[in-house]
Structures are given as structure tokens and as C-alpha cells.
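Q: Can I see a sequence and its folded structure?
A: Here is a first one.
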Amino acid sequence: MLATRHQRASRLPYVSPAPALAQGYDAYVSDPMKPVPLVDRIEGHGMPRDYITADQRFAARRPDVLVYQTDALTEDITIAGPVSPVLHVATSGTDADFVVKLIDVFPDDAPNWPGDSSGFRVAGHQQLVRGEPFRGKFRKSFSAPVAFVPDQPDSIRFDMPDVNHTFKNGHRIMIQIQSSWFPHIDRNPQTFVPNIFEAKESNFQKETMRVYGDGARATRINVRVVRRPAA
């Protein structure tokens, strides 16, 4: 799905919550009444300022978040420019959000930051590099939303904001995929309604999401790797 140990486009090893299914997809249940939160703490009002680099370990432990990662890198990898997901997905409902997060995973033996007395454990830190949601009903047109056909595979392509980031030797590159990110984005009822702000309580339904990873339906994340000129 991004870069393997060979640094070429390929499906990332699947690490949580279960091995890839025989049908060629990974699945999770998204419940709009229990959305994936933006950070792992309760905020008073407004958006937490540190969410854009926040530790994602709490999300990786949730059953409604798919987690993929590379082996530990054997050299520095710098990516620059847009991060472009190509998702092959399906939902048991008629609408769905898909959130893609690009994450820098620190080594399990990484030391804590010098002078930091907060008690934060850097070893295994999952630093958010970029995260971006896409509302599925706009996958074909932003002016003419369309419903999903339940359980029928479909495709979503979009660009996340540009990035200029180096994944250091010994780190891992991780991708997380989920269908809610509250309160950064409003909850999708997961049943198609023309105007989500007019959705009724009965429209909010728990649905099963599938992310395909094989053959012509290989979900992937396209990035631009900066290559240093040969010495």
C-alpha cells in the first residue's frame, strides 16, 4: 500500500486487528455512535492544537481502525509533495467516510526527549504526519453526490495536503484507515441523505466497511520519494 522494505509500491503487512481475509479485503465495523476520536483525551471546547502531530497509539488499538505498517526502515526515506490515496472499498450501508492517516512510528527503543518531564513515552510513538478524510458520496462528483450500493466495491481517489517529511532509519511507515474522526469531521450517518445536517437519528446506522487489497482492487497510497543524487 505504500513502501515495503524494498521501497516500491506494494501492499503493506497487515498488523491489526486480524490477518487479511481470504476474500481479499480487510473489514471493520464503524459505529457513528462510537466514533474514533481525534485525540486520546477529552477536550473542553475547540480543536486541540496538537492533533496534527498527535500520538496515534490509542487509535491503533481500536477494532474500527485498520493498521498497516512497513518493517523497520534500513535507511532514511524522505517524501515530498501530495499524499494520494487510491481506495478500493465497500460498505454495507449507502454512505461512508474514509479517513487515511500517514504515521511515523518510532523504534521500540527510542529514548525519551531530553528535558521532557511530562512522562510521555517516545518508544513506539506513532506520530501523525498527515491525516485527511473523504466523504464517500462525493467520490464521483462534489456537486452531485451519489449513494453507495451496499456491499458493492467502489473506488475513491483524492489528494491529501502536501508533505515534506523524513522517516528515519529504524522507524516504520504506518497507514491507518478508519471511517470517523470526531470532532474534526462531523459524524456520517452511513445512510445516504442529501443533506447530512438534516439527518435524523434513525439515519445513523452501524455498518461494515471493507478495504480491498488484492489484484485490480489493490488499495494503495501514492507518494513521491526524494532520491539523493549518487555520490
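Q: Show me another, different protein.
A: A second, unrelated one:
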Amino acid sequence: MSTRNKTLIAVLLAALPVAMLLALSSGPVAIDLPAAIASGWRSDSSDSVILWQLRLPRAVLALLVGAALGLGGAAMQGMLRNPLAEPALLGVSSGAALAAILVLYYGAAVSGLMLPLLAITGALLAVGSVWLLAGRGASASRLVLAGVAINAFLSALMALALNYAPSMFAMQEIVFWLLGSLANRGWDQVLLALPFIVAGAIMLFLARNYLRALSLGETSAASLGFAGRRYPLLVLFGIAFAVGSSVAVAGTIGFIGLVVPHLMRPLVGQDPGRLLWVSALAGALLLLLADVLVLNTVGTQELRIGAVTAFIGAPFFFWLIVSGRREMSL
């Protein structure tokens, strides 16, 4: 690993504890943070309860979800060899969201573990549909087109679910959940998402050399021993596990998987393998800072973090368009 990469990782690792302290210090109620930390999680004081049962699990979940989205976006861009790809492009997020909506509001009561499992199943079904629609040996462009078609179909199904919501309250809850939020999340959600995100990260780690070889082209990757469907399926399953479980506990949060890998790629020398872990760290940092912004925004109702990340992502698109026009004019 080069000195530049080590420096980048060191900066990200150093920034995460600072962002964590900001998150633990943020909220509508001021607390004595040092005293709450010193008293421990078993204390019955109000400051300790707020810290250990409300703010800390929310901050940890922001780190996990941000890391999963950054990791999934980097893997998706590496597999499609498209710097503008993200998990939502192939319907991963929409498939997981649709499955979670059906479970939450239209299905029978299920155990807590079933929600991420069914969200992951929805993500895998969406990816499988894209794979079948594009056909065997499909090019990256055909996969993107198939993903757009499946994503549009899933969005239509979610709109249908909204239309036939059992009550206005349920419809409002669906809309708020689709915007993405970390509000009212506790240790139960952290423990639900953690094993699936770790499993997805392990799969993507095992596929890192495949992503490196794929950057040279599909023919070159096959000549290097990465022929067949094993490694593409490993990447898709890894993305589905990481992103699907994130959607199950936090709703749909966009643009993290697009913005973070695109910004980090030049800093790792365009290496898809190294980009995975740098994007995971940067995604965790970005989502945690976005949640700090949410917590410090004064209003009658808390901002949805999906709206905040969209405000971050939209100017990024504008910048891409402007910079592209400048390069073409030179």
C-alpha cells in the first residue's frame, strides 16, 4: 500500500472519532457527555439513558449503513466499470424497499430477523431479474438498461403499495420510511443489520481481485482466471446483503453509494480493490456527518436523512456536468 493510501486511511480513521463525538453531543437535549460516559450504560440518569440508549446506537447505525452504502457503490461501479453506477441503478435498493414495505404494512407479523432477510431477498430478486433480462454475457451498458427498467417497475409497485395503503397513517409512514431516517433506531436495529453487512463485506473482500481484473476488461479478467458466474454472483450477493440490510433498518438513503466512490477513486490510484475499503470509511463518515446536520437542524419535525444526502448529491451531479463540459471545450 502506498504512502498516499495509508495517509488517506489514517485521515479517515482519525476523522471518524471526531464525527462520533459530534454525533453524541448533538440533539434537542443538551447532556453532560463526559459524565454520561463515566457513569456507564447501566446508570439510570437521564443523560446516561440518552447517550447509551438513544444517541450511541443511532451513531453506530449511521456508521454501519454509511459503510455498507459506500462499499456497495464502489463494488457496483467496479463491476459495471461505470463511475456513475450505484446500487439503486440495478434495483437493489428498490427491491429491498419494496420487500420491507410489504412486510411492514401488508404481511403478517414477523420476527425482527425476518425483516432484513426479506429485504435482502427482495434485493437479490431485483438483481436476478436484471441479470435474466440482460441475458447471459450481457455488456455493462445492457445491464444498466435492464437495471433502469427493473427499477422503474419496482418504483411503480411501490407507488401501487402507497395507493392501496390500509390507512392514511400507514401511507405516511411508508413515505417517511422511503425518505430514509435514523430516528428512533436502537440497538435492536444495529444487531439486525450488523451480521448481514459483515457478510456482504466479506463477500466483496473475496471478490476484490476480480474487480481489479475486470477493470482491464471482461476478456482480460477471463484470461486471468475469473471466467464464469462465480465472481459476478459473489459481488451481487455481497451488494445485496450489505445494501438490503441497510435499507431494512434505515429506509432508502441515496447518493452515498454514488458520491463517495467517485470522490475517493482518484485518491487510491483508480484501484477498485482499495476503493472498496476507502469508500466504506468515507461513506460511514459522510452519513454520520449528515446525521449530525439533521440533529442540529431546528424544526417542528426532524429532517429525513435521505433528503439531506439528496441535497449533497444533486450539486455533485451539477459539478460533474459542468466539469464535463469544460473538458469537452478544451
